[in-house]
Amino acid sequence: xLLLLEHVLQTFRGSVLVISHDREFLKRTCTxxxxxxxxxxxxxxxxxxxxxxxxxxxxxxTANTNKKIIAQKEHLQEFVDRFRYKASKAKQAQSKLKAIAxxxxxxxxxxxxxxxxxxxxxxxxxxxxxxxxHLTIGYGEKIIADNINFEIPRGDKxxxxxxxxxxxxxxxxxxxxELPSISGKVAWWHRADIGYYAQHVEAALRPTDRVDxxxxxxxxxxxxxxxxxxxxxxxxxxxxxxxxTVSVLSGGEKARLCxxxxxxxxxxxxxxxxxxxxxxxxxxxxxxxxxxxxxxxVIFVSHSRTFVxxxxxxxxxxxxxxxxxxxDTYEDYVSSLEDVLTADVDGTIDEPTKPxxxxxxxxxxxxxxxxxxxxxxxxxxxxxTHDQQKSELLQYFxxxxxxxxxxxxxxxxxxxxxxxxxxxxxLKLNS
Length: 431
Prior knowledge:
49% helix, 6-stranded mixed sheet, 3-stranded antiparallel sheet, globular, 16% strand
């Protein structure tokens, strides 16, 4: 739908004024930029990327200029301190003092969003974090998607894609245990500690809670006060904001507070449904950078292409009543949607050139074969890694036959199970 809207705006002959936190959308639709910040409007006659580059250049120039001015003032002050009480140099010292008074640094606006978000360190070991088998999801007797099978390794960053109404949020809710499955199996690693951020999670906040009290309650017992304040600042809660009660916060502020609370806790699994809805794109990209470098597993739903590109290394597509692993990159996924949209909107596929039923089936089979070949290549790479890890563990037991190592024993069992599952998938795909 976003791609279609972009197409409409790009071909619209009138003027358009857009407010959006989707950087990719702005890049594709806007030719000028108007920023609202620090109580001022700044107009730039160029697209958003050029404006951001200009801002960086200006910030670098200002920092450089201020550095030179400070150095010059220090140099003049050194002369004054040395000679101000010496009769022969007193006049020169007074002249230098006047010069110092005329030197002013350029004022710098404080950034409204932090440039970097720090998440608690989470260390996970190799193996599977989640296995889904023959899962059917929906509400009561209404089936949204069925025959769902996939496995996610620990530490992966997985985006759930698909058109609205296909079941992305339903799948995430089912994985989080918020919604019971109709049938099938959802098996989490026994040490999975799940943090779940839903689109309407702010409804669970207590109206009498203060911002700082809520965050302290969410923080682990060993968290420092500076960690709590830093996370509050990351999501734009500063100074007086910390003493505000939940009852006076806007909907967006409540959502940001819940997200900050979830990220403050040292979960090793994060399930996030549209986490960037209430974030400006600077904060959104800082969050994306933090999640990409986070040691735990992230499974999320997002329509922000910049955010998905920065975070995801695995794609799950909810479509046609089931869920499948998409073998290509996110750029390939978006590109394939654009090809379909372009053909549809521009009418490049008309009745006389439509392929017949046999050709459509051949195209479908070619695509399916290509998809399976990529899945096989991915599996082979994963199997090689797990086989190497298993060999190292076996070598350890061979070298240390009398050692009591229950943790290594458990790792060996898990790796053996993961390898068996991967080999079964490999055989199935090859057949």
